[in-house]
């Protein structure tokens, strides 16, 4: 009988021992400590700092893009074949530089034809003027009728009208011929070749895309709460991670209609003297928010223990270590997000 009791007690004892170990590891036997506070059994009678708050301005970061303020599509004005294209993507061009040529054989032939007609009409007009002068002389002598003089005057007027019309045709043919030389309208960089030699062009067909690298913008979709406080001319900070550039830029345009889906306004800012910056680059725009009250304490009052930050709080003459979560630094002070309240006292030592 005693052997059976002994065998039964062993499993029960083992189970009780296991439960005690689990309870110990769970901290049931530990003294309860409030979260974020580490007690110190130490009296304090030194200098003190009273926690206060002040208004600070946060900068909200908005994703933005670099865009070209001046974009140009150089297009054909003629119905003709593209003969030559002299530029490549990424190439720098100057205003007035030859970019491409269009087949001009038909236009040259048209100019020659109009010139020939103009020469022929000029010869006829010269003869008609002579006949008119001769007729007027004979009429004064009573040798020809007045209607003969009128016929030659009419002839001269008709030839003058033809000469004027041909002069206008010649001017139009020359303009059309000059349009076969495609020139750069601005100083800029070639973005893309949109056509290749041999392509048949119609009026308005784009051939080359250009942009001016000296006139760039930052464009950003800004939520309406922030955009409502922006004004033209405001200076805002931008950062371009690709090249590490940081500078202040001016608000040049705020699109007056918001995106109804995202509730954001498109804001554009002009960049000055931007080196190694190209359209399409990612940028960060920093917009100041309304001033808000935040707790700030001197940085030297913060103690660091690895990744943790603590302060020494004086409560009833006793020091207590308390964990705090910090925000941004403002001068020689640091913002406290959680862990402290206004009016609490910190030890200064």
Automatic annotation (TrEMBL):
Swiss-Prot/TrEMBL keywords: Membrane, Transmembrane, Transmembrane helix
Quote the InterPro entries the UniProt record gives. Beta-barrel_RND_2 (IPR058792), MdtA-like_BSH (IPR058625), RND_pump_MFP (IPR006143)
As one GO molecular function, the record gives: efflux transmembrane transporter activity
The chain positions of domain CusB-like beta-barrel read 218-285
Boundaries of each Multidrug resistance protein MdtA-like barrel-sandwich hybrid domain copy?
74-205
Per the record, its GO cellular-component terms are:
efflux pump complex
Where do transmembrane segments lie in this chain? 9-29
What family classification does the UniProt entry report for this protein?
A: Belongs to the membrane fusion protein (MFP) (TC 8.A.1) family.
Q: What is this protein called?
A: Efflux transporter periplasmic adaptor subunit
Organism encoding this protein: Pseudoalteromonas amylolytica
Phylogenetic placement of the source organism: Bacteria, Pseudomonadati, Pseudomonadota, Gammaproteobacteria, Alteromonadales
């Amino acid at each position: 009988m005693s052997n059976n009791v002994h065998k039964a007690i062993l499993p029960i004892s083992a189970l009780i021992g296991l439960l005690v170990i689990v309870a110990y590891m769970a901290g049931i036997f530990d003294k309860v400590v409030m979260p974020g506070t580490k007690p110190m059994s130490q009296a304090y009678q030194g200098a003190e700092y009273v926690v206060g708050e002040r208004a600070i301005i946060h900068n909200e970061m908005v994703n933005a893009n670099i865009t070209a303020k001046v974009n140009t599509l150089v297009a054909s004005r003629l119905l003709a074949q593209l003969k030559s294209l002299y530029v490549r993507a990424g190439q720098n061009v100057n205003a007035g530089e030859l970019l491409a040529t269009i087949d001009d054989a038909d236009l040259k032939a048209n100019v020659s034809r109009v010139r020939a007609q103009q020469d022929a009409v000029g010869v006829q007009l010269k003869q008609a003027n002579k006949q008119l002068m001769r007729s007027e002389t004979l009429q004064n002598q009573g040798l020809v009728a007045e209607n003969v003089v009128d016929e030659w005057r009419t002839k001269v007027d008709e030839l003058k009208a033809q000469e004027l019309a041909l002069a206008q045709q010649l001017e139009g043919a020359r303009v059309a011929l000059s349009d076969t030389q495609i020139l750069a309208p601005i100083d800029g960089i070639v973005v893309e070749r949109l056509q290749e030699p041999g392509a048949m062009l119609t009026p308005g067909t784009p051939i080359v895309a250009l942009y001016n690298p000296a006139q760039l913008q930052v464009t950003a979709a800004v939520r309406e709460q922030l955009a409502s406080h922006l004004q033209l001319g405001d200076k805002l900070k931008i950062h371009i991670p690709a090249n590490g550039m940081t500078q202040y830029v001016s608000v040049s345009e705020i699109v007056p209609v918001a995106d109804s889906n995202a509730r954001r306004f498109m804001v554009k800012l002009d960049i000055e003297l931007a080196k190694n910056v190209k359209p399409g680059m990612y940028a960060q725009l920093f917009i100041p928010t309304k001033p808000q009250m935040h707790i700030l304490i001197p940085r030297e009052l913060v103690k660091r223990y690895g990744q943790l930050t603590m302060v020494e709080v004086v409560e009833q003459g006793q020091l207590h270590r308390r964990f705090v979560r910090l925000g941004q630094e403002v001068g020689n002070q640091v913002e406290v997000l959680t862990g402290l309240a206004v009016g609490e006292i910190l030890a200064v030592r």
